């Protein structure tokens, strides 16, 4: 499916979403950086360390969920210029454990153009191997993007 056409100023919207991501308090817990690659595609570079580990010495599932949800969410919200989207469902699949170091979460819009959006994401480790993948459903909220601290178009 082809992403819907965005109005002029899409690049400003993408940069404002990147700013919104950076301003979210939860992102103070992760060394990460969002890049909206193009309409319907997002990339987040993360650096993981022992703070993200479970008792057995690998990255805890909460970190996987955060990375996958964020990448899919921002891929979908890159197509919506007026409203903040909300995650309504998310399925994830773990394929290999992650240790410390850099990883990339890549998000891609799959379908939906009005009220409900579907997007998927995957996590790639430093060796280029996929460590997890997930699919989320997102819907428009009543929250205007322009009203959110950090969204600076």
Automatic annotation (TrEMBL):
Identify the keywords attached in UniProt to this record, alphabetized. Answer: Hydrolase
SUPFAM superfamilies with a match to the protein in the record: Thioesterase/thiol ester dehydrase-isomerase (SSF54637)
InterPro entries reported for this sequence: HotDog_dom_sf, PAAI_dom, Thioestr_dom
Gene3D superfamilies tied to this protein:
Hotdog Thioesterase
Is Hydrolase among the key words of this record?
yes
Every copy of the Thioesterase domain together lies at 57-131
Provide an example Pfam family for this protein. Answer: 4HBT
Its domain of life reads Bacteria
User: Mind telling me what this protein is named?
Assistant: PaaI family thioesterase
What organism does the UniProt record list as the source? Sphingomonas donggukensis
Q: What is the lineage of its organism?
A: Bacteria, Pseudomonadati, Pseudomonadota, Alphaproteobacteria, Sphingomonadales
